[in-house]
Structures are given as C-alpha cells and as structure tokens.
C-alpha cells in the first residue's frame, strides 16, 4: 500500500499533461495514481535502484512509454539534470519498502531470520554483514548514534564486536536485545537496524545532495513532494525547504504544506507502517512572474 496516497494527490495536485518524475518508484503505487491524473506516460520517468522493483515497473509501465531507470535517486537526478530535463511533479518516498521488510532474504528485518544484507541495490558490494563484522567499534558507535539516535550506542557497538562473527539478522537482533536489557513497545534492535541500513545505502548523504538537483529539475510552478519515515530524514527535508522557501525576496520555493502531512486514522488502521510517514510539499516559484509583480 503506498503511504499517504490521497494526501500526495491533494497536496501535489497532478493535472493532465504534466511531466512526472518518481525518484523512488518502488512497485508503482504512487506512480499509478499520479499517471492516471496526468495521462502523460511518454514524458514521465520512474526511478528505483532495486531490481525487483524495476522488474515490476517494467511489466506494468514500459509498454505505455514510461521511461524506467535503475539507479539511486541522486545519480538518476544528476543524469536527468545533465540532459536538461524538466518536470512538473517530482515525488520521493524515502526509506525501505514493506516488501523489503517482509522478505527475510533481503536482510532488512529484525523480526525474521535472514542474511545480513540490507542492500537496496544488490549490485553494490557493501552489505550489512561487512558493516557488522569488519567496521571498528568506534565506527559502529558513530553510525548507531548518528543514524539510529541510539542512546546505548557504545554498549551495543562493543557487544557486536565481542560476538563476531555474526551472520544473520536474528543473531544481531538478539545480541542487541540482550545488551539493552528489558524492553516494552518498539523492538530494541530497531534503531540499530535503521542505522546499519542507512550506512549501507548511504541514504542521508544522498538525500542531502539530491534535493538541490530535484529543485533544478522542476519547472516554474512545479511541485516537489518528499515522504520521510524518521526524524533524521524529516529534519534534512524541513531544513532544506525552509532555507529555499519562505517569504524572503530570494526564495526559490513556496511551502505548500505548512505542517508535515501525516496518515489519517483510517490509513493507520489499514497500514500500520504509515504511522511514521511525513509528507512535505513545496512548489517552485516562477521568478519571471515575481519580477513582473515587483515591477
């Protein structure tokens, strides 16, 4: 289930003929509805770095003329910018998909035993197993603290090093659980798994680098929507939008969603994983119109 689907449509307001770029198309949930509104298949682009997602997108959209690109969103945006492409709508649904979490063999979940993989693009060499078994305790502590906001980062890092070699997600989850002691609510390994996944896929650095490119790819009046799933992502998005937007004379963006949009109670009942999703949308200011108004 694509998260915040109706909220995305309402905030981004896709209309007939507009060009759409889905920077994290996944299995096409958002793209299906956005393209239904624009009816512009041949000028739209769907991007993902996961082979299973690309295969699904090819099966559904390729014969409609949609361009499908297998790459991370930064590299894809860089190539599109170099080619002089422009879009009216750009959407990025960040983080890991439910299908990644549900498939134990991908190694993303602490709830099922699988290999320590966590690669969104299985062509890359760095895996979670390398991070867990080869990085120093200091490096592990750093990513647990910075990418997982884990208060017990040092204790967990030392426990990981002590228990090497670790080969499965269940082993790692159990080590973290034993190290942190009693727990209620969220699994104690959740922050550790998040931190390692972000490190493996370079998620935050790529997000920080890509946002200016997405703005450059927008036509005047075009809308950019970003869905984040944890505070680290949302903080980067919020800061960038505020730096580029607002009421300043040199602003390049206008803020469409004054507050982040979150899932309704109905969606939470159907799709509990949407509980942490936050949507922020901006529109690119038409500088020519603004200059004309000022004159």
Helices and strands in order:
Blueprint (H helix, E strand, L loop, with lengths): L4 H8 L7 E3 L6 H10 L6 E4 L2 H11 L5 E4 L2 H10 L4 E7 L4 H5 L25 H7 L2 H12 L4 H10 L6 H12 L9 H12 L1 H15 E11 L2 H14 L8 E3 L9 H6 L7 E7 L2 H8 L1
Helix pairs in contact: 4-11, 7-8, 7-10, 8-9, 11-12
Question: Using only CA atoms, what is the Rg?
Answer: 20 Å
| pLDDT < 50 stretches | 291-295
Helix content bin:
40-55%
Mean of all residue-level pLDDT scores: 94
Beta-strand fraction estimate: 5-15%
DSSP strand tally = 7
Morphology: globular
Taken in chain order, the helices and strands follow as HEHEHEHEHHHHHHHEHEHEH
Structure in words:
Strands 3-2-1-4-5-7-6 form a seven-stranded mixed beta sheet, sandwiched between helices. Helix content is 47%, strand content 13%. The protein has helices at residues 5-12, 29-38, 51-61, 73-82, 98-102, 128-134, 137-148, 153-162, 169-180, 190-201, 203-217, 231-244, 265-270, 287-294; strands at residues 20-22, 45-48, 67-70, 87-93, 218-228, 253-255, 278-284. The radius of gyration is 20 Å and the shape is globular. With 295 residues, it is an alpha/beta fold. The model is unreliable at 291-295 (pLDDT under 50). The protein starts with a helix and ends with a helix. Helix 2 links the parallel strand 1 (20-22) and strand 2. Helix 11 runs parallel beside helix 12.
